[in-house]
Every structure is written in C-alpha cells, then in structure tokens.
Amino acid sequence: MDAILLIRYGEIALKGKNRPFFEKKLEQNIKTALRGLEPFKLIFQRGRFFLHIGGERLFSAQERLRRVFGIVSVSPAYPAEPELAAICQEALALLRNSYFPGVSFKIETNRVNKRFPYPSPEVNSQVGAFILKSGLDVKVDVHQPQILIQIEIRERVAYLFCERYPGPGGLPVGVTGRGLLLLSGGIDSPVAGYMALKRGVTLEALHFYSPPFTGEAAVNKVNDLCRVLASYGEKIKLHLAHFTEIQTQIRLHCPESMTITLMRRAMFRIAEKLAARRGIEVLFTGESLGQVASQTLENLTGIDRVVSIPVLRPLIGFDKEEIVNISRQINTYSISTLPFEDCCTLFVPKHPVTRPKPEELEKAEKKIPLDELLASCLEKIETRTVNP
After folding, report:
1. Is 335 helix (H, G, I), strand (E, B) or coil?
2. How far apart are CA 232 and CA 14, in angstroms?
3. Diameter over CA atoms, the chain
4. Residues 16-59: pLDDT tens digits?
5. Over 80: is that where the pLDDT of 340 sits?
6. Mean pLDDT across the stretch 264-292?
7. CA-based angle 46:48:54, to the nearest 5?
8. Strand 138-140 vs strand 103-111: parallel, antiparallel, or unpaired?
9. Which helix (H) or strand (E) holds 364?
10. What pLDDT, on a 0 to 100 scale, did the predictor assign at position 72?
C-alpha cells in the first residue's frame, strides 16, 4: 500500500469539552496549508488526522504540515490489515527500506483498538520474532535501536512507521482571537509574531516607514517577513503607515534624548486607532526588557500609558541570543539582517533617556501638533494582503 501521513496534535487533547472546536480549526488550517496539492483525503479518528495523498505529493504535504501550529509531529505511515500476520509482513517490508547488514531494530506498539486480541508487548514480541526469522542480518536493541518500527493498531487498520518529523506544536491559528503586530524590519518583532501565532492568534501587521529616509527595499523586507509568518498560518494583512512627518516634527522640536520614546508613543496611539478600526483587541510587540535603552520598565510604562488597549510582549524575558536562535529556526533571521534601515533605527540619540517621567514626555509632545499628525498618518495608511 502507498504511504499516508499520520498527523499528531498535543495540547489540543487537553481542552476538554472545547476540544472539538480546536480540532475543527486545526482541520481547516491543514486543508488551507495543502491548497494546490489536491486531490487529497483528510480523515479524523480519535486524536489523529490521516492524510491520504498521492505519493509524488506526499513529501511536499509533509513539509507544509510541519509549519501548521497545533501539529506536534508527522509520520509517513504504511497501512496494514489489523491482523498479526499482515502487520508482521508490513513491518518486515518497512525494515527492508532502511536495511543494512547488522542493523539493530526495536518494535513499539500502541494498541488503540483494545479489542485487538494481542496486547502491545505480545505484538512487539511476535513481530520482532518474525523479523529475526526472516533471514536478514539484524539484531534487537531495545535501548538504542538504529531502526525503530512503530505500530499503531486502530479499529479497521494498523499503521506502521519509522519516523516522526516534528511540527511547531502550539494551538491552531485562529482559536484565540486577533492581534495587531507592530512589525519593524528587525530581528525581534517577527519572532514575537511567530510566538503569537503559536498561541492561536490571527495576526495583522503594522509597519511604520519614513520615505525618503527609508526606501522601497525596507518595505519589501517587511513584506518578505510577513510572507514567512503567513507560511505558519494564513494570509496576513500588512498595514503601511507613512511616519516621516511625525518623525521629522519630533526630531526638530522635542528633546533629542526622548525621540525614541516619543516616536513609540505616537506609534502606539496610531496602532490602537487602527486596531479599533479593524476590530482587533490587542497589540503585540517585539520588545525585550532591558535589551536597549528604550526598553526599560520606565520607558515601556511611559509608552503603554498612552493607550488603553492591552499590549502583549511575548519576548519580554528573552535575551538576544534566544531571540536570534528562534529567528534562525523560523527563517526570518536572514531577512531581518538585510542592510535596509527602518524608521526605528534612524536618528537614534547618542544618550537616550532611560527613566523618563510621564509629565516630561507629555510636556515634550505639546511642542508639536500631535493630534493632527496622528490623524494624517492614520488616514494615509496603505493596506496589502501578504499570502504564504
């Protein structure tokens, strides 16, 4: 028989009475991830999904599924009749695929169908004995086998497989609400977006750009980051906010040491208004406590006080090395490190304020027509859809 893909999920299984809701959403996300690979058949049975798809498309499907949140692992598996003789034959055929003289193996059985007449240890023993009598030069090693043959016995079919390819885990995108990600072109914010997606959040992204100080290459960079994030869930709406006038006014009329904090306060105000317009209830940012001068507790609270919407920071306790490692794993690092500046890295003051007082920030903001600037920026926001 041709191989199928056995798809496992983890955390969803703990959701009690809400479990069917999570399973249904995961099923929808799997089908979305497999668009373009039709025809296929996706079957759900007691804690597993089984994907029947043509052999030439199986590997492509496997790689796509490894990016679907909620999936913990995927295995190419071979069906067999739920009879001991058929299971033995399929196990031997599976071992032959990776056979070399002297190879060690182990049999491991999960008897989901408790009416199957042999308990799991007996299946392990019988299948192992059959392989040892096959004439192949093999040996059993129950501790560190070179080939682990796993058997899952269900009501109408048994599945045999040797590999488990890890998925991202987490929750299916779309089960915990919607968030607006403040997405720069740096390393941190795409990782924060990934972490939000992993907890089931549907994301939209907001990027501030400042032409002519930032060019089209910087926007393309952010577009590419969105495309990577979209590959872990679904299409992402990217909102582009023209920030040049606000940034210029802050530079010309406000204390230099406060420019970063004042810009962030303006960005958050715009993000809150856009979120309200889009029916979004929470903001996500890539800030990490103490990583740079603008990310002290005083600066973060000084920024947060200008909005009433919750601000979530998935990376708040991460150090830079941890963030970089994740960005490499999710394939955003090479894009984030391209030499195209965003507005957050322009005009960084030599001595940024680290412990600003709220009244000092408010006094500085009165030197510019802030309300007019914010309204103009919000009105000019451009929106595009970024597909995986």
Report:
1. helix
2. 22
3. 88
4. 888 899 999 999 999 999 999 999 999 998 889 999 998 889 99
5. no
6. 95
7. 130
8. parallel
9. helix 358-365
10. 96
pTM: 0.91
Helix (H, G, I), strand (E, B) or coil at 52: strand
Annotated domain spans of the chain: 1-81+157-172, 84-150, 178-386
Q: pLDDT over 90 for what percent of the chain?
A: 82
345 confidence band (pLDDT: 50, 70, 90): low
CA 264 – CA 268 distance, rounded (Å): 6
Residue 24 Cα to chain centre, angstroms = 19
The residue type of 7 is: I
Which segments of 169-279 does DSSP mark as H helices, in order? 188-198, 216-230, 244-253, 259-278
Count of C-beta atoms within a 10 Å radius of residue 54: 12
Those residues with Cβ within 8 angstroms of residue 16's Cβ, 6 or more apart along the chain or in another chain: none
pLDDT digits (tens, 9 = 90+) for 9-28: 988 877 788 889 999 999 99
CA angle 75, 198, 270 (to 5 degrees): 155
The answer to whether residues 87 and 101 touch, using CB atoms and an 8 Å cutoff, is no
In the chain, % of residues over pLDDT 70? 98
Q: Regarding beta strands 283-284 and 311-312, do their DSSP bridges make them parallel or antiparallel, or are they unpaired?
A: parallel
Q: Whose CA is closest to 211, among 245, 182, 237?
A: 245
| CATH number given to 178-386 | 3.40.50.620
* 9: its two tokens: 């999920």
H helices of 142-215, in order, are: 188-198
Cβ–Cβ under 8 Å, residues 218 and 324 = no
Domain 84-150 carries which CATH code?
Answer: 3.30.2300.10
Determine whether 22 is exposed, middle or buried from the number of CB atoms within 10 Å of its CB (0-12, 13-18, 19+): buried
CA distances from 263 to 128, 176, 221, 251, 344 (A): 67, 30, 21, 10, 8
Give the model's confidence band at 344: pLDDT under 50 very low, under 70 low, under 90 confident, else very high.
low
Pairing of strands 283-284, 178-182: parallel
Q: 1-81+157-172 architecture in CATH?
A: 2-Layer Sandwich (3.30)
Residue 185 carries which DSSP code?
S
Q: Which residues contact 123 (CB under 8 A, 6 or more apart)?
A: 84, 87, 107, 109, 111, 151, 153
Mean pLDDT of the chain: 93
Report the relative pairing of strands 40-45 and 103-111 from DSSP bridges. Answer: unpaired
